[in-house]
Design brief:
- By secondary structure, the protein is an alpha+beta fold.
- It folds into two domains: 9-52; 57-192, OB fold (Dihydrolipoamide Acetyltransferase, E2P).
- Helix content is 39%, strand content 20%.
- It has five helices and seven strands.
- It has helices at 9-33, 37-52, 106-117, 151-157, 171-187; strands spanning 57-67, 70-75, 82-87, 90-91, 121-125, 139-145, 162-163.
- Strands 1-2-3-6-5 form a five-stranded mixed β-barrel. Strands 4-7 form a two-stranded antiparallel ribbon.
- Strand 2 and strand 3 form a beta hairpin.
- The protein is elongated, with a radius of gyration of 29 Å.
């Protein structure tokens, strides 16, 4: 038995067009889901790089200072909620941890931060390589005063805080804070003053 299929000119155009469409669709699907291993890795790196270069900033009102490196603030973007904010890259001597005694220069650091930040407006800026939130649920942010002063850097420069570079931070920021701490140590500022604390 012989089957003789005859296609009209119009049927052939339709058939070839349909086949071409199916081939293009399959190729597109295959290339997006079955990319070579190296290509996928490159795409993943690009995504990670873009995420790492992102830093966000928002203005906020400081409700109260908890201690020398933590405050409670209301973000302009979320005016109905208070957030605890931990200053990035700095660590002041302890004053409120019930498990630890008040550390040397802790009260002075806390009092200074209260005098500068309580009931003021600030800008909070994330670091592209730092976590957004710590294990205690606090936002991790750099703090800038209304005049643009980098408050975290100022705390280290004036000897109210140590450079706390065990935080994940971008390398440039870590270097800056270490240099500021070295200057504070050299000049005997704040907690580096031998008459105040034995560091």
């Amino acid at each position: 038995m012989k089957i003789d299929l005859k296609l009209t000119k119009q049927s052939k155009k339709f058939f070839y067009g349909l086949m071409a469409g199916i081939v293009v669709f399959l190729l597109a699907s295959f290339s997006s889901t079955q990319a070579p291993e190296g290509q996928t890795a490159i795409r993943d790196n690009v995504v990670k790089t873009n995420e790492q270069t992102k830093s966000t900033s928002t203005n906020a009102y400081v409700v109260r200072v908890v201690d020398g490196d933590t405050m409670v603030a209301i973000l302009d973007s979320e005016p109905d909620k208070e957030y605890k904010v931990r200053f990035l890259g700095v660590n002041t001597p302890e004053t409120v941890d019930p498990r630890k005694p008040v550390e040397c220069f802790g009260k002075q650091a806390s009092d200074y931060v209260k005098s500068q930040l309580n009931n003021t407006r600030v800008m909070l800026k994330s670091d592209p390589e730092a976590d957004e939130i710590d294990k205690y649920g606090r936002l991790l942010r750099n703090v800038f005063l209304e005049d643009g002063t980098d408050f975290c850097a100022q705390l280290v420069r004036m000897g109210y805080a140590y450079a706390y570079t065990s935080f994940p931070l971008n390398a440039e920021r870590k270097t800056e804070l270490r240099e500021l701490q070295a200057e504070a140590q050299e000049s005997g500022a704040g907690l580096w003053n031998k008459d105040e604390c034995n560091n």
